[in-house]
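Take a look at the protein record below with the fold in mind.
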Amino acid sequence: MSTTHEEITVALQEEIPADNLKDLIDANLYMPFPFLSNRHESESAAGVDTWLRTWGLTDDPAVAAMIVKTRPAELASYNSPTVDRDVLQIVANQIAYQFIFDDLAEEVGRHRPGRLLPMLSESIGILRDGRPPVTPLGAALADLHRQVQERCTPAQAARWAWNSREYVHGLLYESVAQTHSPPVRMELCNSIRSLTAGIEPFYPLYEAAQPCELTPKDLHHATMQHLRRLSVDAAVWTADLFSSVKEQRTGGMVNLALAYQRAYECSLPQAVTLAIRRINSTIDEFETLYEKIKPELSPAGVGYVEGMSGWIRGCYYWSRTVPRYADATAMSSVH
C-alpha cells in the first residue's frame, strides 16, 4: 500500500507537534504489538560476545565499539521473545554478524561496487556450495550455517541459506544504488531495502522454533508470502525512521524516510511523517490479512506468523533506545 498524492499534500502542510524525531515517531507510529523480551537475553548477550571473539570479529576496536552501540542480543530478545535459548542464540549471533557484514559492505562498496565482489562471492560460495572460508567473516558465516543446519530440518536450513543469499545480493544492489546518479526512484530503493533488511533469513528459525513442522499448506498458503513481505517492510522501515539522521549524515540512500525526502524535496521531519503513514498502512494490512488467514493455520503456522510480527515489534522497541540511533532523539523535528 502507498500513500496517495492527496495524503502527501496534506501531510506536507501539517504542523509537526513534537520536539524531536523520536517523539514524532512515538506519537504517530501505529504499533499494536506490545513490548516483550526473552528471558534468556543476558545469556544470549554473553554468547554473542564469546562467538564474535572466537572468530576474531571484534579484534578491531571499531567493530567492538559498534557492537556495543548496536546491542544485537537485545534486538534478538525483543523480536524473538518466546523462542528457546538455542534458537535465540542463533538469532543473536546472526544479527551481530549481519551488522558487521553490512557495515563493512557499505564501507567497501560506497564508491566502487566492484570492490565488493570478492567479499560477496565468498559468502555465496559458503551458502550455496559449501566452499571453505578464506576470511574471518567467512569463517563466522560458515559456523553460523553449521548452527542452523544442526538446529533446523534440511528444508528449513535450505530456506535459511536461500534467504541469506538474497540478502548478500541485496548489498551489491545497494552499493550500485549508492553510486548511481541521479538517485534511484523510491520504489526501486524500497525493493533494495527489502533485500538488505536481512530479516527473512530469520524466518526459517521460527519454523524450527515451533513444536512441530509447518504443514505445506501453512508454509505455501497464498497469503503467507504476502505476510512475509509486509512484515519485513514494516520492520525495516520502522528502523529506517530512527536511523534516518545517521544515514543522512553518512550519505545513505536506501532508507524509506530519505527516499521520501528526495522524492518530495521536503524536510526530514516531513519525510519521516510520510514514511510513518506508509508504515502504518503496512502494519494495518498485515494485521488484517493475519486475522483472515489465522483460522486456516495450524498452531505451528500461527507461531510462525507471530515470529514475523515479532520483528515489527522488536525493531520498534529496540530502535527507540539503542545507542546506534541516538541521533533521532537529538535532532529537532521543526527543521
